[in-house]
Amino acid sequence: MPTLTANAPAKVVNVGSLGQVPVDFDDVELTRGYDGVTAYRRAKLALAAWSFDLAEELAGRGVTVNCLHPATLMDTQMVRDHGAPPRSTVREGGEATLRLILHEEGTGGFFDGQRPARAHPDAYDPEVRRRLRALTFGSARTGKAPTHEQTNCR
How much is the pTM? Predict the structure, then answer.
């Protein structure tokens, strides 16, 4: 953070996805049946939530933070490997990303291509965000995910 704030104005643009799904805090590591698509979608929800947290943390310090779904099913290897027909080009996704980098769009937003949009409702939920922070920082300190009891305050 010190480097970002020392070089303000600065921007953080996180490349996410509209394909977000809620995190199952009882099985964050998908031990009851790993599925790569579910893991990807949960990670994209976590990224959006973290983007909003970071935007709040850096508010008023000259750093804007936004999250972006650049384009739907871009013609990438990941999309082709999944067997989905591409619905947009990498160029379209790149243009949306570059626009968010180069133009002032405020902070703490979520974008679908070049339009303001909404992330999954859980990304805005303070309790979900708190639990995701606990998971993230607990994992960074210990090298393993915290237990359900460590992240649950209910």
Answer: 0.85
Q: What H or E segment, with its residue span, contains residue 36? A: helix 36-57
- Per residue in 33-89, pLDDT (tens digit) is 999 999 999 999 999 999 999 999 999 999 999 999 999 998 888 888 888 888 999
Region of residue 37 (phi > 0: left; psi between -120 and 50: alpha; otherwise: beta): alpha
- Pairing verdict, β 109-112 and 115-117: antiparallel
| Polymer length in residues for the chain | 154
Q: What is the DSSP letter of 70?
A: -
Spatial neighbors of 140 by CB under 8 A, at least 6 apart, are none
Instruction: Judge contact between 38 and 95, C-beta under 8 A.
Output: no
Question: Do 20 and 44 contact (CB within 8 A), yes or no?
Answer: yes
